[in-house]
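Recall that a protein's primary structure is simply its ordered list of amino acids. Everything else, from secondary elements to tertiary packing, is in principle encoded there. The following example makes that idea concrete.
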Amino acid sequence: MFMKFFWAILRMLNGCGRIGRSIQRALCLLVAGVFCIAAVSGCASRRANAEAASAKVQSLTRRPVSNLPEIKNVVQSAIDQTLRTFEYDPSYAKLDYPGGDVPIERGVCADVIVRAFRTAGVDLQKEVHQDMTRSFASYPTRWGLRRPDSNIDHRRVPNLMTFFEREGKSVPITRNSADYIPGDVVSWELENHSPHIGLVVDAVADGTPNYLMVHNIGAGARIEDVLMAWKITGHYRMWK
């Protein structure tokens, strides 16, 4: 919107002779300066976020419970994402298939799961797309789609929940934090009724036996003690 307004002003000044051209140059320099300042500020902010995330990861108390390489890879990937993903961006994007992804510095909550599972050899983009192609009617229809879309289907929490359920990966939902172990996927319903999803990792909250979650709820991938923060709607275990 701003750039459309800016270009409109420049076009208006085209017919204003020497004064108009001088104003155009001044405006261009001003806008360029603003963008430079914003870029430098953004870089500094990302650097500060990365440093804070790194310090937090280094201070974690880790209590792994499985030697399965898949679980170890998934958990480590989720934790590593907290060092690289600092933005929440639900924008639709054209992705490669299979193995497609948005830039690692951004994403949605489902991307945490998709990226982590890929390190264990499971491409949820491909798996969800293939399952939706086989049984499209089994999946939610709230988005008005008439056919599978490999660019977005795996990035939607209800679709991941449906896939895990159809694969027989559901385990009981309880209010006992001890029932949730590293590698588990948990879905929630937030206060605003939006679906959300995260991964249980092998780091524990200070002074408790509770495992932490990695999720992206709006400010990038974070590792936090939020397992019981919202209504749990799904509990899934890919590897046992």
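The chain is about 40% helix and 15% strand. The chain has a mean pLDDT of 89.
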